[in-house]
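Lab meeting notes turned into a lecture example. A postdoc, R.K., suggested we walk through two folding results consecutively so the class can see how the record format repeats. The first protein's sequence and structure tokens come next.
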Amino acid sequence: MKFTEFNLNDRLLEAISYMGFDEATPIQEMAIPEIMNENDLIACAQTGTGKTAAFILPVLNKLTGVKSSSINTLIIVPTRELALQIDQQIQGFSYFVPVSSLPVYGGGDGNDFETERKALLGNSDIIVATPGKLISHLKMGYVKFNDIKHLILDEADKMLDMGFYDDIQKIISYIPKNRQTLMFSATMPPKIRVLASQILKNPKEISIELSKPAEGVLQASYLVYDNQKTVLIKYLLLNKPEYNSILIFTSTKSKVSEIVRELKRKDFEIEGISSDLEQQQREEVLSRFRSKKTRILVATDVLSRGIDIKDINLIINYDVPGDAEDYVHRVGRTARANTTGVALTLINENDMQKFRRIEELIEREIIKIPVPAELGESPAWNPRPFHKHSKPRYKRRKGK
């Protein structure tokens, strides 16, 4: 379905065309008409399916030509990175329409706080906010949410995982009950259903490819011992010069530093990103990676969702994700918008059962490859049976 079939404003269609979009993705095709018809919505769609545009475009269409001096739309997201990404997309889609937006998130300086304060007083049409920072403003008593018409929760499951349930309920208490509420989530666990029943009115439901990596992702795994992981990555990257955008996920901040240090010795263009960096530093690192000035980015889970970086050729899971669904989000960083990409996972002896659960979730067996002979022997694939009452085989490390 083409965007011209949605009966969107001509200036909005011009911006869509200018950004290089023509046909809608399945989530856009299903969600946009429901939102334009004023229905509440609960939508389940994985990373990379185009869900941001699915809720931004109909909201912008409603705002086009409407003069207002108050906040119309509040979008709540779990992370600063996602807030910035959505704000950037709003700016792109609203290029030819007079709609303003502002991200509200932690980590800035006093000037940022004053800019946010003015926006929350009604100087912006759309606010994209993280719960914690928005609560800080609400406590100051000047936030004006009296005229909000649209409340959108993006990555709702992630926000609940991060413990934002009470903050979300507090924020909603400031918003008029007569509104349109949209909830987008990558997964649909029972706690999401409970929240939806509390804040949505007779919602329409949409589910798009729940917890399945995109078809364009070539998935494979290597059976390794821990001391072979970085050596294997060096071997793979030296033999793949055509990969110019590589994202490596690892489980801890300390491992980020170790991997960056080891690969720099081989003169790789590499940087690391974690919560140890200040917000401005993180934005600068991401900017260099987006512009291909940095070939390799090593990250903790802070980037597993919500970062729109195009044309990533290769994803490497240095560690098997602890949550099977996190694998989908990590892998979702590549093969965006009908492109192709490669996702490799390094599996040690202790992570084999976790990887088996991933395969059960995505209903697919992923090829297991031994390390090249010159790097030594590989452990045999032998996942232990999982018993829900069994004791954990190892303790979770600090620093995640």
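The second example is placed directly after the first for contrast:
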Amino acid sequence: MTERFKPFATVALIIEHEGRFLMVEELDEYGKKVFGMPSGHIDAKEGIIAAALREGKEETGCAIELTALTGIYDYVKDYETIYRFCFAANLKEIPEELHAADPDGEILKVSWYSRDEIYAHKDKWRTRLVGMCMDDYLRGQRFPLSLITHLVP
């Protein structure tokens, strides 16, 4: 029997405050500086909503409130398949300075960017998913969080 294919399941957060968006800068697997919205993989035995809240806390250092699902993306990249769940979210409190609480130590900087600054630096996006998620968010695409049903044993 061949090994079963397992896609990557990821979450991302679009956090807007006073017309600016919270983005994280980090080094990619090749050592190149990239940026995108707070995002990451869903861990084993973790639900989609729980993963979004955890990743938000880890990458921003702040408690997060999810407000809507903005899109689900099926992204095939090289030899990978990635399913991304993107959420609109808010920080529960806006600190004077942002610091990632990143256990992996991958986050270099957490900053606020204008829409124009984000699109002006397309060449530094971690993946094309940054633009796809931002485009849908800016178009006003929102789905209720109740679209995701979490079953517990």
